[in-house]
Amino acid sequence: MLTAASAVAGLILPTGMAFAQAAPAASPPAQAGNAGHYRFRVGDISAIVLSDGLIGGPPRVYASDAPEAELQEVLRHAFLPADRLTLNLNTLLIETNGRRILLEAGAGQTMGPQGGRVFANLAAIGLRPEDIDVVVVSHAHPDHVGNLRTADGAKAFPRAAIFAPRADWDFFVLNDPDLSYMPVPEEFRRNFAAAIKRSVEPVTNEIELYEAGTEIVPGLTTLPAFGHTPGMASFLVQSGNDQLLLTADLAYHPIVNVDRPWLPGPDRDKDTALASRRRIFDMAAADRLLVLGFHYPFPGLGRMLRTDAGYAWVPVNWQF
């Protein structure tokens, strides 16, 4: 049986990888295989889900309060392995009012060797990092800020204005964060904090800080989603009558955090995170919003259905 420390460590890295050396790296070489980009529209706004790859870890990490036997049964019924839950990294590129805006920078390779693919997927749709005008991150964990720095320490999106929530910046970047809520060894906590600071170093002097609840650009509003981190935001993209809700890390995987109400272990304040999750999921269900889950199976798009037991995740049909 996994200890709490080994379980959360497994969330970040595959066994045997030295987290302290996991600085953001160049995008892995392109290989023949499946596409990592998915196009759709939100009214007049062009939108493309761009995969940054995969991370993952022991299922217990993402379902911290699940009874073990029930967790194993749920995974088995969903045809998922019992020892590892794979998570996607679904960044979103929107084009509105002549600007290209990337929502979430992605992990790079700060959380394992299968991340850092957003640059190859940008190239696959004919774009370069220089073509991005704005990058907005929902919170400051490494899988959301890792791609802000290149392998040689430069700004990865050289022309882009970078937006981050003020409360997260204050907690993780300007101070030495108290990560005692993370049930891992002290060395791991130091490396986790250092990876965040290292990732944002190239943009520190020009960062644009926002308060959750404010509009970043016309058509893109941030929604308070506190609890996972001090300042995490969800995003609402709107054009005319069409809306898209990006839930960030309110839930990691629909099987264990939506269809089942189990609590993600990495939430810093679980009570506040649970309240945020219920409030935003209720809004998504009531308004029948299109939803993008950052870690959900690619392309991460679906809708939230309210049920007697809580919620159910309904993936959208694939569109060519």
Question: How many beta strands in the DSSP annotation?
Answer: 14
- Based on CA inertia axes, which overall geometry fits? globular
Strand content: 25-35%
CA distance, first residue to last residue: 44 Å
Descriptive notes:
It is built from 9 helices and 14 strands. By secondary structure, it is α/β, with parallel strands linked by helices. It starts with a helix and ends in a 5-residue tail after the last strand.
Write the layout of secondary structure elements.
Layout: H1 4-12, E1 37-42, E2 45-57, H2 59-62, H3 68-77, E3 85-96, E4 99-103, H4 118-124, E5 134-136, H5 142-145, E6 161-165, H6 166-174, H7 186-200, E7 208-210, E8 215-217, E9 220-224, E10 233-239, E11 242-246, H8 254-257, H9 270-286, E12 290-292, E13 301-307, E14 310-315
Parallel strand pairs: 4-5, 5-6, 6-7, 11-12
Antiparallel strand pairs: 1-2, 2-3, 3-4, 8-9, 9-10, 10-11, 12-13, 13-14
What brief labels describe this structure?
9 helices, globular, single chain, 7-stranded mixed β-sheet, 320 residues, alpha/beta, disordered N terminus, 14 strands, 25% helix
Q: What can be said about this structure in brief?
A:
By secondary structure, the chain is of the alpha/beta class.
